[in-house]
Structures are given as C-alpha cells and as structure tokens.
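The protein record quoted in full:
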Amino acid sequence: MDTYIEVTAKESGERIDALLARQEAISSRSAAAKLLEGGRVTVCGAAVRKNYRVSAGDTFTVALPEPAPVETEAQPIPLDVVYEDGDVIVVNKPRGMVVHPAPGHPDGTLVNALLAHCGDSLSGVGGALRPGIVHRIDKDTSGLIIAAKNDRAHESLSAQLKDRSLSRVYDAVCHGSFREDAGTVDAPIGRDPRNRQRMAVTEKNARPAVTHWEVLARYARHTYIRCRLETGRTHQIRVHMAHTGHPLLGDTVYGGRRDKGLESQCLHARGLKFVHPSTGERIELWTDLPGWFSEVLSKLGPEI
C-alpha cells in the first residue's frame, strides 16, 4: 500500500528518516530505516538514502509492506459496545485497558477483546498487533475509540483523521482557574528533548497540534473543561494543558504531582463524530461520564 508525504517549508532541511519516523503508519526510526534500506521510499521515482535532506515541495512515495497476518490472541474480555455495524465498531474503553499489545502488555488489551468479539472482521491495515485500530487513547484515559472491520473502512477513517473531519471530544479536570471561558492551544508537539519518554511543546522535530477547549464548570482550585482535538498527537491534551499552566488532575507525568485518591489523569473521551465509510452518513456518538470521573467532580466542592 502506497502512502504519500509532501514536505512543508518548516520541514525543509530535515533528514528523511526523521521525517518518516513521525508518520503514524511508520512511527519509529528503525521502521523508517528498514523502508529506506529496502528502497521503498522514492522521490520522482528514485530511491532515497536515510541521510537525504528533504526540501519544501518534495513529495515522497512510501511503499508500505503488506500487513502481516494477525497473530494476536483473541480473548473473551467484555466490551461496552456503543455502535457496531459491518464496517466499524465503537467501544467505550475502560480506564486501565491498553489499546493494543506492546512491550509489558502482551495481552488483555482492547485488540485482544476485539478479536474475540469480531472474529476475522477486523482490518489488517494496522498490522499484526493493531488490527482494526484507527486511532489510540492512553491506557489510563477512558472513553470512545473506533475500530475498522475492513481495509476500505480503515482507509476512509484514516483519511478523515488526516483531513480533520473525524472529530474527538474529551472531558477533563485541570488544576487552577482559566481566565477565559474558551480558547485554543495551537502549539507543536514533539518528543521532549530532555526526556524521550515524554512529549512536549517544542519546535524541534515537532508536528502541528491544535486543541480547542471550553469551560464546563469552575471550582475553587480546579476547572472542568471540554476539549475538541483538531489534530491527534500523542498525549496532546495532557501536554497542551500542562503548557498553559493547567495540568490535568491526576497526571503525574505532565503535572508533576500525585493527587490523592486518583490513579491517573482525569480525562475521558466523551464524544466521537465521523462520516460512515459506506453510507456517507454523519455519525455522532456520546457516552456518559464514568463513575470514577463523576466521583472526582463531586469531591471538588461547590461550583463557583
């Protein structure tokens, strides 16, 4: 399957392997190196080396290998299915569930549960470890996540992510009080140069990131907000809110503090809107706040 990457003026001068590693379908420097070494990355029909410096306007063709057969084990884990048809399935993921197998989490994931629920009806675009997975949410973030049941649906949903017509809405509780009732954080996100395990607002090897937010309720020392993602970078809301000086309640990674009684960041994927891959119908789905989130709100004191 071919994918195409057009270089922006901001990316001009960057090494091709670094540019490739930021693409969601590739996602690592080692995977980018394998593609380059195999001659799978071309510009104007010519294969490029990993030290090639890109120029604004370059358009690269990347021949991604065919997805490997799905080998992840199906496990009969209960799922809270919000919507399902022959093309897509939307699940309300519980807090604490990992989306797909990874080092340290070989099973018990959403993918293991989906394989048991859907059988062979999951797209292979995500590869052996991520069949059907179109986008991800953090292990300790609860809420709505969509998976594709066939390659055509997967490609349609991925295109909607890219052109930003697939909308994701999150509810969160932040430390402190926002001066405005609504706003937008437009700040690029990349690997934290001081800690490669974290993301950060940075200009170095970063990708554009935009989060729109609005205040739902104010408390003495916290604010309940709703965020709409215009882009989908790793840890985007957590990074952006910390950048504004209002880290998420319970976020020990970006908040730098442990909040008593909270096991993780207070973040829930509340809404999901997308165009159905087959019918073209606009689907809009919402889920209630989970009990743990409502309990957090009840302990913040009276609204002000």
